[in-house]
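Record type: monomer structure entry
Structure origin: computed from sequence
Chain ID: A
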Amino acid sequence: LFGALTERRNLEWRDEPTLWAGAVEVWPESADAWRGYGLALKFAKRWEESEAANQRVFDLDPTRIEALDDIGIARVQRKDLIGAREAWEAALKIRPGHCAALNNLAGLRAQEGDRVGAASGWEGTLRVCPDDATAHMNLGFVYLALREQDRAIDHLEAYLRVDPGGPYVTRCEKALATRMRVAMCSAPSVS
């Protein structure tokens, strides 16, 4: 008996999506269970299922706008940029200063090739969330692409101040080091 129960439990716990699928089976009206399932599916890159689970979260609890963020991400992964934009705009209708949706919309503009629009979007994010590391980092790189070196440096340095242990520290430090070498080489010599 215990062997059979152990085997069943091991099957339920074999991966996160399976664990959370069990949770939504037991608690089908729980937004928290569906949210856990949606996140597990997102991390497993099962985009269609993640979108459906997060839609269920939002249907159960329309205040859970983080579900709309992940619906947008799933749609981007499935190349549905219009649907992603709709999800993030819906989140902003509920909470106009929602940093993740602001960041994601700016990132979508960058992905579409609209660097100026992306910069404007991330600047808007920073007006609402001045310590948003993602917005600073993205602005630094978009300003580099737009050849606005001083602004790029300001935002790359801000990223390093705001998130000194963040995942993009090395990338930002390399970009800053390259900019500093270029600046030193192009500085006029003093006699």
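Annotation 1: The first helix runs from residue 2 to 12.
Annotation 2: The radius of gyration is 21 Å.
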